[in-house]
Amino acid sequence: MTARRFAGSLSALLVAAIMLQAPATAGESEAERYLGFRLLELDGAGVKWAGRHDGLSPAGATAAEAPRVTYAFATAPMTFPGARNCAGLVPVEPLAARSGIAPEALKTEARAAFDMWESAARIEFVETANADRADIVIGAQAEPTGHAFTNVAYEPGGGAERRIERSLICLNPMKRWKIGFDGNLAVYDLRYTLAHEIGHAIGLDHPDGNSALMSFRYREGSRHLTPGDMAGAAALYGPRMPSIETGTVTAPTRNGDAGEPAPPSELAIGQPR
Q1: Left, alpha or beta for 146 (phi > 0: left; psi -120 to 50: alpha)?
Q2: pTM reported for the whole predicted model
């Protein structure tokens, strides 16, 4: 199946400044700018994960349903021919060990990053052990570069939106990583970085300004989504409905389951597979 790709990351300033002027981001609306987010737009169309009865669903869908997106960690070397970024993934355990982080702690930070987006919008993330079939695959880069990248493959089609087929998130195993903020912007916090990359993986671009988690600059101001980040996720998937009993927003229940500005993200568009 033919698919086109978007790739985003936390990387070099000069390259990003040039690439952020590309046509892929030219469709930012006044509303997006005012609310502090930017939707990812490629080839004149937005991209998102499809739920049921949302215009992107298979024929025959009759009930409205939030997208249920699976994710997995690479457990063996994986290759994705044609991917602009993350074309080769390897397990994250050596990456974690190099930074003195337990593999389970890294996966806990990833779950917390998914929960941030799940609490903001009508989208659900479920971990699976099968990386070959997962919608989002997380791994270390087989060929280390930059800090972290995202690759988004989407299905062709007409209309204003296209269905995301698969997203890849890859971290540089040669970089040092940490859990939490300590003011050292040369070492990136895993939860913040993964939450940023997940934002790309679900269809968000880099907004103007530097305050949002989706901004292209790594910052250590807050490990939470900003109102702009949440507005962007809600624009794609609808807002998470508040609890009737408490009036608070909660994620769905699952069963079984800083200093000198740091370098910003790099934005690139890949080629058809």
Answers
A1: left
A2: 0.79
